[in-house]
């Protein structure tokens, strides 16, 4: 990495961080899974979102017109699929057994399942790619001699750093919470996830 690449890399890292940091359904899901299943599953959940962010960042950085057009045209279908997935996650969180009992009986949520589910949920939000296209177009003036690879790497590192910090903080809190606290947090998360799904469906109908 040379002196001309570093500013773009740092800006892309901040972009990845700023897109990941706002509390939304992915953040709630990451917190809930960390509390219920531990830091490994929580981190896998966050990394699924980080990889999806990096992929959307790659599409925006390289300007893959056909893919952008396809995702834009399919945003209604993607939004519907994402809303239904959120409702399923909300139902699962509300009816979930005690975390330790579930882990003993069912083996808990696997890391690859947490990663894949969050990746698909993040990819189902076309607004993410539109955000990356808008931001990267504003950086185009400084990209003339810079490989888009550094921008993609910056987005991934910024997003992954946020999930690492969040999971670490929640993981420490987890040890101090009792089963009753976890149950109420889980049900609160379920209601919020259902609320995000309802908002997405309402926006889809209104649009």
Summarize the structure.
This protein is mostly helical and 207 residues long.
User: Based on helices, strands and strand pairing, what is the structural class?
Assistant: mainly alpha
Number of helices: 10
> How many strand units?
0
Q: How would you state the average pLDDT, rounded? A: 76
Whole-number total of structural domains: 1
Sheet with the most strands? none
Strand content bin: under 5%
Give Rg in angstroms: 18 Å
Low-confidence stretches: 97-106
Distance between the termini: 44 Å
| Elements, N to C (H/E) | HHHHHHHHHH
**Overall geometric form:** globular
> How much helical structure, as a percent, in the residues?
over 70%
Oligomer: single chain
Membrane topology: Multi-pass membrane protein
Subcellular location: Cell membrane
Protein name: Threonine/homoserine/homoserine lactone efflux protein
Transmembrane segments: 12-31, 43-71, 77-94, 115-144, 150-170, 190-206
């Amino acid at each position: 990495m040379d002196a001309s690449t570093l500013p773009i890399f740092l800006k892309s890292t901040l972009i990845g961080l700023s897109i990941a940091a706002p509390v939304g359904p992915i953040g709630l899901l990451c917190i809930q899974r960390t509390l219920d299943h531990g830091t490994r599953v929580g981190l896998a959940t966050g990394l699924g979102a980080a990889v999806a962010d990096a992929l959307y960042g790659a599409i925006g950085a390289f300007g893959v017109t056909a893919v952008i057009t396809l995702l834009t045209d399919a945003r209604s279908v993607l939004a519907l699929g994402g809303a239904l997935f959120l409702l399923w996650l909300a139902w699962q969180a509300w009816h979930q057994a005690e975390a330790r009992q579930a882990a003993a009986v069912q083996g808990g949520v696997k890391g690859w399942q947490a990663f894949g589910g969050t990746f698909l949920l993040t990819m189902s939000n076309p607004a993410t790619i539109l955000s990356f296209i808008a931001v990267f177009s504003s950086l185009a003036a400084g990209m003339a001699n810079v490989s888009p690879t550094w921008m993609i790497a910056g987005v991934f590192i910024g997003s992954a750093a946020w999930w690492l910090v969040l999971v670490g903080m929640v993981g420490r809190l987890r040890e101090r919470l009792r089963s009753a606290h976890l149950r109420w947090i889980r049900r609160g998360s379920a209601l919020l996830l259902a609320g995000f799904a309802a908002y997405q469906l309402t926006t889809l109908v209104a649009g």
